[in-house]
Amino acid sequence: MKKSMKRAAALALSAVMATGMLAGCGGDSGSNGSSAANGSGAGTGNEGASGSGSGGVIDTSEHVDLTMYLLGDRTPDFDEVYGEINKILEEKLNCSVKVEFMGWGEHDTKYSLLFSGGEDFDLIFTASSWGHYEPTVAMGGFYPMTEEFIQTYAPDIWNVVPDIAWSQAKIDGIAYMVPNYQNEFGQDVLAVRGDLMEKYGVSQITSWDELIDFYKKCAADGQYASQGGPWYQYFQAQGYTVTGGAPKGGELILYNTQDPSDLSFTYILDWEGFSDYCHQMKELADMGCWSQDILSSNDERQTGLLTGRTAGMIWNLGSCRNYAEQANKENPSWNVTLADPVSAWPKKVNSYINNGMAINVNSQHPERAMMVLNEFYTNPVINDMTRFGIEGKHWEAIGDDQFKVITLEGYGVDANCNWGWMNADIKRTEYKEDRTPLDDTYDAMLESWDNNVKGEHIYDGFNFDSTNVTVQMSSVDAALSTYCDPLINGLVPDVDKALEDFRTAMETAGIRDIIAELEKQAAEYVASKQQ
For the segment 446-458, what is each residue's pLDDT rounded down to a tens digit? Predict the structure, then answer.
């Protein structure tokens, strides 16, 4: 109900904004009928700037054609969908948007060239770490988004995006992107066969001890429990999480995400907990909780569950739900369900700047570009179209807050780099026609997570840049599969000797240089956020 009310309110506000915004289209400087409340802003005081006018009215009388860069590949119906979007933009903002794509194989090399080459465009997708945000800010490529600028040209975005997201987006006190707003949880769960839980007398798996108990009961029955050791569940159960950009996907250097006052990092080979985990995994592996050949296996993460070889799989909530659903369709008697072995902790959401939108510092129309972002982000009609395509052709609305896929051909769902303007307040969820107990479990788990989001830790938005220690990172990465993977899966003859060998290899590879550089960057990052 709450989401439906927000969507209805957004639709109503969008209609009001259409009137308020267009009040400036005639260039009547005497009009005073619009304000920040109806989306027209209060003016910037820079009357010569494109998009601003006198009397507190944003002047959109000049038609503007904007260019936006997105990542990925253009789907067959993309131009048709954006043709419909441009009809709305023409009517409301007297502008249009032309979209260019950078393919997945080229954006790493092409992205910076757009700025260094001075290419004429206005909007671009960006993301912290993987999506070129920090390097582009460093080269002066993005338009600075002051609070006044955002409140004037995107008042609805300002009201929607949480303070923590703006804080994460700031570099030296200034935001250079509009972060997306949705809770993407950095928490893995278990998709597990309910029939085996019942067989072994296991009513729930909500803690580390209950998870290990279930694994041992599987092994005693000759059933593989998983495709390897539950390393993520272990350190998450201790309150730790991975450090963005650190070796092995951040797993080699952790931080205590549950304690915002703790600004230390934990190198796992300096942590007694890692030794404890490795000894536990040795016991489980020797019992037969997973196959001895998993390190040489090419099986995908879901293979064991879908084939019945393992009792469960570990992945994010959405993937576990999807593969559990597939397994139940193919084997209804399995009654695959979801379990959270780390249920006691508040949930960490991925950084909001993991997806976002920026404005080119050389844009001729940054104000109009920001107004367009306001529409993409908060206008439910446009937001739906960018996510699903054309209603009646690609998808069907179910009430105010759900959708039903008609066809995935031609456009897809969330397949067109619309991630930079995701808005949880108006985001539709998929309608399930024939609900199952799995759907109920998923919804209940997601609702409990949404109601138990942990407080911000400043490192949640930090990403390590390894440029200054490239050689050391390469050496560490080369040694990890030899030493780390066997240990975290219990596949070593002698745990203590393997730990010592691992430690020696990391020291030789230069791990201390990496840690020192990481700590230096983290200190600078913290200082920049305190400005």
Answer: 999 989 999 889 9
